[in-house]
Amino acid sequence: MNGLVGADLRHRTGVFVGTFVAVGFGAALFSLCAALFTSAIILNGESSEDYVGPIAVFATMGAISVFASLFVVASTVALSVEQRRADMALLRSVGATPRQVRRLVIREMGVVSLVATVIGTLAALPVADAMAGVFAGIDDMPSEFEYRRHILPVGVSLAATWLVAVLAAMTSARAAGAASPAEAMTGSDGAPRRLGITRWVIGSIFTAGGVALIIVSATTNDDPGLAIGYVFMASATALIGVSMLGPVVVRPMARLVSLPFRATTTGSIAAMNVVADARRTAATAGPVALMTAINVGMVQATVAANDMGTEGSQMWSLWIMIAISVGFAAIAVVNTTAMTIVRRRTELASLRLAGATPAQTRRSSQTEAVIAALTGSAIGVVIATAACWAFAVATGVSLIGMFEPALIGGLAGFAMVLAAGSAHVAARRAIGDPTLLVEVE
């Protein structure tokens, strides 16, 4: 088994690139926030200056960034394992047991994730040093602020990111181990079309938890500062629930969002593909929903709190948070879009053989990616609106007055451009010779 793992990692590196990128950047983001937060705590005990404000700011930034990184790491690893179902079916056809397949998947993802986590964590340390210098020049931050090296944030970020990746691989490996040997013979996609009971239960619990947090925030809390925290917790909890329910939530939203695209032949085909394969659509929609829900909710709530004169809602920390989360979400969108298209070489070649030109094939892939991005934006806006409604009820501000159309439109446009661009590049490379309907990677 170890020999097969080593051979896979040596000769099929392209299969693991998407996972490596997601885990590496996730570990870097986790390590960066943990390092700055730990530095503020250390300096608070050593310096005569007050670091309570910076500690609170870094705690908020860290919570949001860590959630985003672990969310994307888990979803990307799960997508990577799911897309290798045909490989697992081939192993089953030559005598591998489901248990052996599961062990293979977990070991491969464990090794890839470990290497990516170490590289990402170490790469974040010089970045933390540079960012500490930037923070020291901000008015609300003590001038003595600096990055203090400590083993704790390094160890925590390494362990947490790797464990999340391995847990995601373990969960997905169960489905991979269930691949039928017949799938390798027929070339069919035997992936389950319905959610398993585990995802139903976990998704329902977290979705209900998000709804409960929204209700609790609206009825029991009138402090704007605390209400902002509730906005994040409610959004994060609901996002986990929605991601677990994935296709169940994405399919109806994608059907609604894709209506304007059905006016053309290419758009109609793309819309049908997006709705038919909701699992694939959810892979791209997930990071976009994360970016939209967290940023729209937090920005609108923080701006409203600032208008009310609430202390501690520093806008500079908000813009840094936006930059970090948008940047990481952008990496996730490009990564997942490319992963889903590269694994569809046979499907794209079939379109070519059916008479579609290379340009039409690329446009179809781009349209699918745009619809998926819009679907994620719509889901994110719904979650953010619900969280902001609770904030508005609790603090007495106007929900309509909280809305920032430019922010929502900007995030949606950014996601669509990223998805379309990465789909164009990936489709152009994946089309190749249309007569090669079966390609061994």
UniProtKB/TrEMBL annotation:
User: Which terms under GO biological process does the entry name?
Assistant: lipoprotein localization to outer membrane
Q: Enumerate the transmembrane spans.
A: 20-43, 55-81, 109-138, 150-176, 197-216, 228-250, 282-304, 316-342, 369-394, 406-427
Membrane topology listed for this record = Multi-pass membrane protein
UniProt subcellular location: Cell membrane
A Gene Ontology cellular-component term:
plasma membrane protein complex
**Keywords on record:** Cell membrane, Membrane, Transmembrane, Transmembrane helix
Q: Where does the record place the ABC3 transporter permease C-terminal domain?
A: 61-175, 320-431
| Keyword Transmembrane helix part of the UniProt annotation | yes
Q: Which domain of life is it from?
A: Bacteria
Principal subcellular localization: membrane
Has the keyword Cell membrane been applied to this entry?
yes
Q: Which Pfam families match?
A: FtsX
Signal peptide segment: none
State the family named in the UniProt similarity comment for this chain. Answer: Belongs to the ABC-4 integral membrane protein family. LolC/E subfamily.
PANTHER family xrefs: LIPOPROTEIN-RELEASING SYSTEM TRANSMEMBRANE PROTEIN LOLE
Q: What protein is this chain from? A: Putative ABC transport system permease protein
